[in-house]
Design a protein that fits this description.
Length: 321
């Protein structure tokens, strides 16, 4: 078991960072740790790095303290990576990670590459926020920390409905509720509430989606042209694939976003029969059995042909069991 307190006590300067394109668990864990450390270890320099914080998470305490650019020339005593499956996913903070006197990797992804000097990865945990809860002194978790951790758990479990939701997850969530947080506000404001623009793109993706493999796969594609037409950013696509996944008869949902010429960002969700993490790992990505992603090169038809072949193979193997 990682003794986080001992590591922090030995460091005067600490950096916290998450993965590129941060989601709820990434933002929640980074700000949760930042709020915990700055409250309990006031004399230390603690910096938190993220590419950005989605507007839906702006109610979390100290979102205004997030650094979106690396502090040049800064060498930290301790660098803590959160919710990041591999070192390249740290993006602009990777150099700070390597330069630090000590680096730590705290995560829950089963595909984690164990890239730090000290690795603490709990593959059965619902989220990195759940992992962090176990590393904190429960009595020292205040409302601001609890809000962050609860948000992260909510987002990585799909509001407690994904298969990664365990008894431990519910127990942790219950303890966080006792800190005085508003469950309904966190869930509504950060998970369900959408802008009109986001609802427009959701509608378009559903309208233009297609079914493959006799309805076992639902697929939708978002081009750069469409993103520009709506003035959308990648975060505006959050939640779309989860809506696709609950289509009757579907085993796997695939949402592909065009990032550049012959370059596509792939998000996948499974209803249980297909391990999408295993597929995404083949293309340099990763994630969980039920939710994963990767970046693939080629035309959108190449991407879908490759993915559908792997999905079909797993479905055939599942049927044969």
């Amino acid at each position: 078991m990682l003794n986080l307190t001992n590591l922090v006590k030995k460091a005067d300067t600490i950096a916290i960072a998450g993965h590129v394109r941060p989601d709820g668990d990434c933002v929640g864990s980074c700000l949760g740790l930042y709020n915990y450390l700055t409250r309990e270890f006031g004399g230390k320099q603690v910096d938190v790095y993220l590419e950005s914080v989605p507007e839906a998470f702006s109610f979390l305490k100290n979102t205004d303290k997030v650094c979106t650019e690396a502090k040049q020339g800064t060498v930290y005593d301790l660098f803590i990576s959160l919710d990041c499956g591999s070192v390249d996913r740290l993006g602009f903070t990777e150099a700070l990670f390597h330069a630090a006197g000590m680096n730590v990797n705290i995560d829950h992804h089963i595909s984690n590459t164990l890239f730090a000097k000290c690795n603490h990865v709990e593959g059965k945990a619902s989220s990195t926020c759940e992992v962090l809860y176990g590393l904190f002194d429960e009595e020292k978790i205040d409302k601001s920390v609890a809000e962050c951790l609860y948000l992260g758990i909510v987002h990585d479990t799909g509001v407690f409905k994904h298969s990664n939701t365990s008894r431990r997850t519910m127990e942790v969530a219950g303890c966080l509720l006792e800190k005085g947080i508003s469950s309904s506000k966190i869930i509504d404001d950060s998970f369900y509430r959408k802008t009109y623009l986001q609802n427009q793109i959701l509608g378009r993706c559903l309208l233009e989606s297609i079914l493959l493999l006799e309805g076992k796969i639902i697929f939708s594609f978002v081009s750069q042209k469409v993103m520009q037409l709506y003035g959308a950013v990648p975060a505006d696509l959050d939640g779309i694939i989860d809506q696709m996944r609950v289509t009757e008869g579907v085993e796997v949902a695939v949402l592909v976003r065009e990032e550049g010429v012959q370059c596509h960002k792939v998000s996948m969700r499974s209803n249980g029969k297909v391990d999408v993490s295993r597929i995404c790992c083949m293309f340099g990505g990763g994630g969980h059995k039920m939710a994963a992603g990767c970046t693939m090169n080629g035309s959108v038809h190449d991407v879908m042909n490759n993915l559908s072949a792997h999905i079909s193979h797993q479905l055939s193997a599942y049927k044969a069991e």
